[in-house]
Input
Amino acid sequence: MEKRILLLAMWLLTVCMAFAATPSLAGIYKFKDSYSGEDAKVKIYDNGKGGYDARIIWLAQPNNPDGSPRLDEKNPDPALRTRKAYEIVVAKNLKYNEKKQRWETKELYHPSYGKYFSAYMEFESATRLKVRGYVGAPALGQTEYWEKTE
Output
Protein backbone atom coordinates (compact mmCIF):
# COMPACT_ATOMS: atom_id res chain seq x y z
CA MET A 1 0.00 0.00 0.00
CA GLU A 2 2.78 2.44 0.91
CA LYS A 3 4.54 1.63 -2.35
CA ARG A 4 1.39 2.58 -4.33
CA ILE A 5 1.06 5.85 -2.48
CA LEU A 6 4.71 6.65 -3.13
CA LEU A 7 4.34 5.85 -6.84
CA LEU A 8 1.18 7.99 -7.05
CA ALA A 9 2.94 10.87 -5.30
CA MET A 10 5.91 10.62 -7.68
CA TRP A 11 3.58 10.56 -10.70
CA LEU A 12 1.66 13.63 -9.43
CA LEU A 13 4.92 15.47 -8.84
CA THR A 14 6.08 14.67 -12.38
CA VAL A 15 2.80 15.90 -13.87
CA CYS A 16 2.89 19.09 -11.81
CA MET A 17 6.49 19.77 -12.82
CA ALA A 18 5.60 19.30 -16.51
CA PHE A 19 2.78 21.83 -16.24
CA ALA A 20 4.95 24.26 -14.27
CA ALA A 21 7.71 24.01 -16.89
CA THR A 22 5.35 24.97 -19.73
CA PRO A 23 4.94 28.75 -19.88
CA SER A 24 1.41 30.07 -20.29
CA LEU A 25 0.49 30.68 -23.92
CA ALA A 26 -1.79 33.60 -23.05
CA GLY A 27 -0.15 37.00 -23.34
CA ILE A 28 1.04 39.71 -25.69
CA TYR A 29 3.76 38.97 -28.23
CA LYS A 30 5.81 41.20 -30.49
CA PHE A 31 7.26 40.00 -33.79
CA LYS A 32 8.56 41.12 -37.16
CA ASP A 33 6.54 39.69 -40.02
CA SER A 34 8.93 37.83 -42.31
CA TYR A 35 6.85 38.67 -45.40
CA SER A 36 6.39 42.41 -44.93
CA GLY A 37 9.20 43.15 -42.47
CA GLU A 38 6.68 45.02 -40.33
CA ASP A 39 6.62 45.02 -36.54
CA ALA A 40 3.36 43.83 -35.01
CA LYS A 41 1.87 42.67 -31.72
CA VAL A 42 -0.66 39.93 -31.12
CA LYS A 43 -2.65 39.01 -28.07
CA ILE A 44 -3.15 35.30 -27.40
CA TYR A 45 -6.17 34.63 -25.22
CA ASP A 46 -8.43 31.81 -24.02
CA ASN A 47 -11.27 31.60 -26.55
CA GLY A 48 -13.70 29.95 -24.09
CA LYS A 49 -13.96 26.87 -26.33
CA GLY A 50 -11.08 24.85 -24.91
CA GLY A 51 -8.39 26.56 -26.98
CA TYR A 52 -6.62 29.83 -27.63
CA ASP A 53 -7.00 32.48 -30.33
CA ALA A 54 -4.49 35.15 -31.37
CA ARG A 55 -5.52 38.61 -32.59
CA ILE A 56 -3.44 41.45 -33.96
CA ILE A 57 -3.62 44.36 -31.51
CA TRP A 58 -0.95 46.70 -32.88
CA LEU A 59 0.85 47.38 -36.15
CA ALA A 60 3.81 49.68 -36.69
CA GLN A 61 2.03 50.96 -39.81
CA PRO A 62 -1.75 50.65 -39.32
CA ASN A 63 -2.53 53.04 -42.21
CA ASN A 64 -2.02 53.07 -45.96
CA PRO A 65 0.20 55.80 -47.50
CA ASP A 66 -2.95 57.91 -48.10
CA GLY A 67 -3.80 57.80 -44.37
CA SER A 68 -6.74 55.40 -44.67
CA PRO A 69 -6.72 52.40 -42.32
CA ARG A 70 -5.27 49.18 -43.71
CA LEU A 71 -7.92 46.51 -44.16
CA ASP A 72 -7.99 42.74 -44.45
CA GLU A 73 -8.45 43.09 -48.22
CA LYS A 74 -7.16 39.63 -49.20
CA ASN A 75 -9.42 37.69 -46.83
CA PRO A 76 -11.14 34.78 -48.60
CA ASP A 77 -14.39 35.78 -46.84
CA PRO A 78 -15.68 38.97 -48.55
CA ALA A 79 -17.55 39.95 -45.38
CA LEU A 80 -14.22 40.28 -43.53
CA ARG A 81 -12.40 42.39 -46.11
CA THR A 82 -13.47 45.64 -44.44
CA ARG A 83 -12.01 44.57 -41.09
CA LYS A 84 -9.15 46.79 -39.90
CA ALA A 85 -5.77 45.07 -40.11
CA TYR A 86 -5.05 45.52 -36.40
CA GLU A 87 -8.24 43.59 -35.50
CA ILE A 88 -7.51 40.40 -37.47
CA VAL A 89 -7.66 37.06 -35.67
CA VAL A 90 -4.55 35.34 -37.00
CA ALA A 91 -4.85 32.02 -35.15
CA LYS A 92 -7.96 30.18 -34.09
CA ASN A 93 -8.48 27.32 -31.69
CA LEU A 94 -4.90 26.52 -30.72
CA LYS A 95 -4.98 23.27 -28.74
CA TYR A 96 -2.18 21.82 -26.66
CA ASN A 97 -0.77 18.51 -27.93
CA GLU A 98 0.49 16.84 -24.75
CA LYS A 99 2.52 14.23 -26.64
CA LYS A 100 4.40 16.78 -28.76
CA GLN A 101 4.34 19.48 -26.06
CA ARG A 102 3.17 22.23 -28.37
CA TRP A 103 0.05 24.09 -29.43
CA GLU A 104 -1.44 23.23 -32.81
CA THR A 105 -4.10 24.61 -35.14
CA LYS A 106 -5.39 24.21 -38.68
CA GLU A 107 -6.32 27.90 -38.75
CA LEU A 108 -3.28 30.18 -38.84
CA TYR A 109 -4.23 33.12 -41.04
CA HIS A 110 -1.63 35.24 -42.82
CA PRO A 111 -3.26 38.48 -44.03
CA SER A 112 -0.46 39.24 -46.51
CA TYR A 113 -1.38 36.07 -48.40
CA GLY A 114 -5.09 35.95 -47.53
CA LYS A 115 -4.68 32.24 -46.75
CA TYR A 116 -5.01 29.82 -43.85
CA PHE A 117 -2.28 27.38 -42.89
CA SER A 118 -1.75 24.61 -40.37
CA ALA A 119 0.61 25.59 -37.59
CA TYR A 120 2.24 24.70 -34.34
CA MET A 121 3.66 26.89 -31.62
CA GLU A 122 6.21 25.88 -29.02
CA PHE A 123 8.30 27.77 -26.50
CA GLU A 124 12.06 27.83 -26.99
CA SER A 125 12.42 29.78 -23.73
CA ALA A 126 10.03 31.35 -21.24
CA THR A 127 9.48 34.31 -23.60
CA ARG A 128 10.42 33.08 -27.10
CA LEU A 129 7.64 31.32 -29.01
CA LYS A 130 8.45 29.47 -32.22
CA VAL A 131 5.54 29.74 -34.69
CA ARG A 132 5.68 27.35 -37.63
CA GLY A 133 3.06 27.70 -40.37
CA TYR A 134 2.89 25.12 -43.13
CA VAL A 135 0.94 23.45 -45.91
CA GLY A 136 0.70 19.67 -45.67
CA ALA A 137 3.75 18.90 -43.54
CA PRO A 138 5.78 21.09 -41.15
CA ALA A 139 8.82 20.65 -43.42
CA LEU A 140 6.92 22.66 -46.03
CA GLY A 141 6.54 25.84 -44.08
CA GLN A 142 7.91 29.00 -42.60
CA THR A 143 8.96 29.86 -39.06
CA GLU A 144 8.64 33.11 -37.16
CA TYR A 145 9.58 33.88 -33.57
CA TRP A 146 7.29 35.82 -31.28
CA GLU A 147 8.66 37.44 -28.12
CA LYS A 148 6.31 37.49 -25.14
CA THR A 149 6.22 40.99 -23.70
CA GLU A 150 3.32 40.63 -21.23
